[in-house]
Amino acid sequence: MRKLLSNSLIFTVSNVLLQALSFILLPLYSNIISTSEYGIISNINTIVFLCNLIISMRLDGAMSRYYFSCETEEDRKKLFTKLNIFLFVISTAGYSLIIAILWPLISNKIGKDIWFAFVMAILTKYFDNFYSMVSSYLIAKQEAKTVSVIAVCSGALNLVSTYLLVTKMENKVIAYVLSFLAVSILRMFIVLYYQKLLWYPVRKFWEVKEYVCYSVNLLPVELAYWVINTSDRLVITALIGTSSTGVYSMGSNFAHIVNIFIDSFNKAYVPFVFSQMGRDSVTGAKNVICRINQYFVAGATLIVGGVFVFVPSIIEIFNKAYAGSAGIAMVLTISTFFYGIMQSYNVICNYYVECMSSKAKLISLCALLNIVLNIFFVNMMGVIGAAVATVICYALIALGIKYLADKRWKMMIDTKKRVFTYILTLIYLVFAWAPLGYKGFFLRILVSGVYVLLVVGINVIPGDHIFKKGETKNG
């Protein structure tokens, strides 16, 4: 338990630090890089991101899962070696094919400079795939300090190199993409170190098929999340205009604050739960996991409530021109609540391979529904309609993931504590409509202090999660 909290804190601090650095330097980039140049960069990254999802097949997800099926260090080295060999083969072949196919389309019609930037973006993703494999191994091993130090150092180096190259080079698109490639190349030295440390001669290479099948089931999930998180902006741009998209994106950025904390805790939560589920004592494992799930959901609810209440004041102080994004941020913050619920149960679905197919179908259907709802609600309600569509889809995903997880490994949560937490949070959310300005801001701080103490008091008091003798893992 102590290691889980320690790792969560480390991941949170490193992620918040990186986000803060990016936020501080954002005005500098916006003054140096024109909107058209940044649009080209965005399009390049979007294309390469989609290509990489398909080519890499999310093999790093297989590392995160099957690490806990390995009984010895030798087995872990074999797993690492097999996945990296397969990743090298499919990445090299896949990206070579893409370059060969797109060369006549991009170089002749768009220009060689953009083609050069596109190739550099491909190389960046190519190198990053191997680093992701190392990172997944270290996270599974619960080496939070090592992962965070590497992330913070490479992130800070990326920000510095981006600023220096963009200010010095004439072609801003190439400069921006080159800065990411430079950091990826440097991170390859870390990759080579772990490749040498963990390399193991393997004979039964055909066993990689099991890992690939698991990863293939992750692919539609990742693509569906991409659709859910990007289709709203595309619909707003098509139906209303780019200015409204900018306001919506600003609101989304503030709501994303919640995800920073949820994802940071999840990096420590997933390997911890996986390790507990492999224990011989089923009752002991369930006691620990149920207690941690209680803390996860309570913590996510606490952060969601805080962001929801403070967003109007923060945007008012930050930039009055974006005051219209406050309502969007508040609605999207509700979607992050359901995202937190989903992640608290998603770990169970990811542990049991047989759940992956059903999970993929669920999220893919929600992605298609999201597109339809975006078109309907944006036409009916304007920009905020896209936020409402996102809330509905994430609520459905959360309920679906919980249902799938409970079918396989039911958690016996403390219902009274959870209900009390939700009721208290709903009362607290009313203060989001307190007067704006500094007086309203300080009122929010005072009420929030009381709210935090009450939520912590409700959820930290020990609960009874003891199960009957002989209860199985299937619940």
UniProtKB/TrEMBL annotation:
GO CC annotations on file: plasma membrane
Main subcellular location of this protein, as a coarse class: membrane
This protein's record includes keyword Transmembrane helix: yes
Subcellular location: Cell membrane
UniProt xrefs under InterPro entries: Poly_Biosynth_Transport (IPR050833), Polysacc_synth (IPR002797)
Stretches that traverse the bilayer: 9-32, 38-55, 85-103, 115-140, 147-167, 173-194, 295-315, 321-341, 362-378, 384-405, 417-435, 441-461
Keywords carried by this UniProt record: Cell membrane, Membrane, Transmembrane, Transmembrane helix
Protein name, per record: Polysaccharide biosynthesis protein
Highest classification ranks of the organism: Bacteria, Bacillati, Bacillota, Clostridia, Lachnospirales
